[in-house]
Amino acid sequence: MKRLLIAILLAFLVGLLAGCGGSEKGIVIEDAWVRPSPMTAGNGAAYMVIRNTGSEDDALIAADSDIAGAVEIHETMMMEGDMMGMQPVESIPVPAGGSVTLEPGGYHIMLIDMREPLEAGQTVMLTLTFEKAGPIEVQAEVREQ
Known about the structure:
The protein is mainly beta. The chain contains 1 helix and 10 strands; from the N terminus they run αββββββββββ.
């Protein structure tokens, strides 16, 4: 009886671990969120923590979402004349055993030509594509911060 109970418990744990989003690929997405946008045809931004639990370096190379006409990976940086600006980047490295934070004033996912306004409390689906891990679906909460 004890062995049967242990076998059932082990089967449950294996199934539970297999269902963890992104972890089987070595990439785990935490605290994904998108800023509210008051109107359509505007731009928005998504933020999150990308953790690489694998033993190989990886990189975020693309992003996509049905809520925007285009999606780009951006970085906020100091431009000429002490002005802050944004520019697209080809990738964001995510070191093995490390993490990278996408946050206001740094790396972020730019949502261009939004198809509908976003209000706090909604969720947005994003597809993040990694060089080695491939595509990972992410659900991001719309919130102020």
